[in-house]
Every structure is written in C-alpha cells, then in structure tokens.
Amino acid sequence: MNISDILSPDCVFPDMECHSKKDALDTLAKTIAHSDNSTSQTEVFDCLIARERLGSTGLGNGIAIPHGRLKNGQQTIAAFMQLSTSIDYDSVDNAPVDLLFALIVPENSTEEHLKILATLAEMFSNTETLNKLRQSSSSEEMYTILTG
User: Fold this and answer.
1) What are the tens digits of pLDDT across the range 60-109?
2) H/E run at residue 69
3) Residue 15 belongs to domain with CATH number
4) 67 is an active site residue
5) Where are the alpha helices (DSSP H) in the chain?
6) Domain range spanning residue 93?
7) At 25, is the pLDDT very low, low, confident or very high (cuts 50, 70, 90)?
8) What angle do CA 66, 68, 71 make, to 5 degrees?
9) Which run of H or of E encompasses 103?
10) Residue 7 class from Cβ within 10 Å (0-12 exposed, 13-18 middle, 19+ buried)?
11) Distance (Å, rounded) from C-alpha 58 to C-alpha 107?
12) Which listed residue (19, 34, 67, 113) is catalytic?
C-alpha cells in the first residue's frame, strides 16, 4: 500500500487555521467528503468523533491520526493538514498537535485499515520526516514528503 493510493494532492493543506480538535476534525471531514461523493461531511465527522470517544488518536510529538471505518464507505480516503498553530488534542503525551493525517476506510476493510495505520505510525515516528513536514509551506512539497 502506498500513501499515494489513498491521498490526493488536493487533500493536503499547509498552514491551516483550526482553533480546536473539533474544528480540525470538521475541516478534515469536509475535505474527505468533498473527495468522495458517496459520503457526507456529517457522516465522516461522526465517524471520526466516534473513534475519538474510544480514545484520542493523538500519537504524541504533535501528530494525530484521526481515523475510522465508515459504514457506507466506498473507498479508502485520506487528508493531511499542517496547522499554523498547535491545538490541544488530548494526545498521549499531552503535547499539542500541529500535524493531522485523517483516514477513512470502508467498514469491512479491517486488515487494510490496520496496515495503513502501521505504515503511518512508522512514517510519523521519523523525526526527519516530521521536520520536513513542519518546515514545508506548500501542499505539493508536503504531498511529495508524504508519498515519497
């Protein structure tokens, strides 16, 4: 599985203004719904919030991977956001979050979901990758970093 299979360049956003976890999740839900005409922003947002209620998807080091399995989802879709100002996200290390990679998979794609999350966790554990993403100012550059 390649990140480029699930993330399109038009779903990568640098320097976004979000003032809360809810605001960030809503923005990501809007982006994902816009990329997939078979689902609505509300469905995606509700899916992400339901997962957050089970425990924060804030991994630490300023990274969050909000994700969920969508009941009527037709395809796996991702979106990435770099925030201009870090937000409280209830992360495991209590540090604020500035990089979010959202992932929505069809409900029956359990194995794919877990494989993608493992790939993302590995990618976001690389300090060099994180530094490049934080220093980047264009969606094209971020997309290259995420898919390279």
Assistant:
1) 999 999 999 998 888 999 999 999 999 999 999 999 999 999 999 998 88
2) strand 67-70
3) 3.40.930.10
4) yes
5) 21-35, 41-54, 110-123, 127-135, 139-147
6) 3-147
7) very high
8) 155
9) strand 97-106
10) buried
11) 22
12) 67
